[in-house]
Write a structure and sequence with these properties.
By secondary structure, the protein is an alpha+beta fold. It has helices at residues 2-11, 20-51, 169-187, 192-195; strands at residues 68-81, 88-89, 98-105, 108-112, 119-122, 126-132, 134-135, 138-139, 145-152, 155-163.
Length: 197
């Protein structure tokens, strides 16, 4: 019995002493690395904004926009160059994700964003609407995003929205495309050359 206890006591080792200096060094190093990555991301955002400095100021809505066709509450996920879902537009606050209230009238689409820059898409600048699954690095289920394609200055943009009630997306696609069809028919020649964007 005593021999067994002696063997157990001999096998026990004292707990290792924590090397606090090494741990603190690792934590400080990790924090510095995270700060450096954040700084690089911020510089990239500023650089992208300077490349997009030719983008005009965002349009503001008219005082009397007409009767409301549709409303939508949800999230704004960003804007990109049309057809290039990763080419994020950051100028004039278009790169900031936020809550959103969309209102469609005969005059266009009012985009109200609490905590971010509001803007307006006049009906004559709307080009199309569709359902998609990704924009500006945000990927959702197939058809989870409402994408509005619109002309702003010399650029054709895609702006992505997700309603709190995804079933509303289809009605928006239909209404915007009907509106665009009417504008195209009234204002633009319907030849292939006239409608190409």
């Amino acid at each position: 019995m005593s021999a067994a206890l002696i063997n157990i006591a001999a096998e026990q080792k004292s707990a290792e002493v924590t090397d606090w200096a090494a741990r603190i060094g690792w934590v400080v190093g990790l924090l510095l690395f995270i700060a450096f990555v954040y700084w690089l991301m911020r510089q990239g955002w500023k650089w992208r904004g300077s490349l997009q400095s030719d983008l005009p100021e965002l349009p503001q809505g008219p005082q009397a926009a007409g009767d409301v066709t549709l409303r939508l509450s949800g999230r704004y996920h960003g804007s990109t160059t049309a057809g290039q879902w990763l080419d994020r537009i950051v100028a004039h606050g278009l790169g900031v994700r936020s809550r959103v209230e969309l209102t469609l009238t005969d005059a266009g689409v009012a985009v109200v964003r609490p905590g971010a820059t509001d803007f307006y898409i006049p009906a004559g600048q709307l080009r199309a609407a569709r359902l998609d699954k990704g924009i500006a690095g945000k990927v959702l289920a197939e058809g989870g995003l409402l994408i509005l394609t619109w002309q702003h200055g010399e650029r054709l943009l895609d702006s992505g929205f997700r309603s709190d009630r995804a079933a509303e997306h289809a009605a928006w696609v239909e209404a915007v495309n009907l509106m665009n069809q009417a504008v195209t028919t009234d204002d633009v020649p319907t030849t292939t050359e006239g409608t190409a964007r």
